[in-house]
Here is the input.
Amino acid sequence: MDFKSSDTITGPRSEDVLPDTATAAVKVVIVGGFGVGKTTMVGSVSEIRPLTTEETMTQAGVGVDDNRGVESKTATTVAMDFGRISITDQLVLYLFGTPGQERFWFLWNGLFEGALGAVVLVDTRRLEVSFDVIGRLEERGVPFVVAINSFPEAPRHDLEDLRRALDLPEYVPIFDCDARYRESSRDALMTLMRYLHEMTPATA
Here is the structure.
């Protein structure tokens, strides 16, 4: 097939190009169990077209992946999601969403390399899928905040009741969010940034 010059791919879209003013970058990871909204959060808040690695779910996952409560889900992340936010003209935040299925957790090692912290997304319909995720973060010593993602049919609980159910220390922030909306996802990331700032020892 012959291609015209107008068909040639010349590079990223202008809105995806990293600003010339950017001088520093930080990395944050969005984690959680299968189907809790990680891809949705990265997509809603990223200022660039997000990179996703979603694949159609097949019979190969039957009996291997636990999709109870999200039976209607037809695709899943198999490697990572990636997005970007400019915090200031100089500071850029890179977002990496992890795969939720346990069989892909070996990819976490690379995704967490150099990460400042994590946002844990929780679905109250399937609270148990968050236990191992939080445990792994605690084992790694990765600072994290917990965002209770709003699903229309999900039961509502007092946040302090959820803190106790998840066995979270008092100092770990826990809050409601809706990963479908940019403002809510942005607020979740800003909560993590404030938490990380509070953890940083003051210098003379």
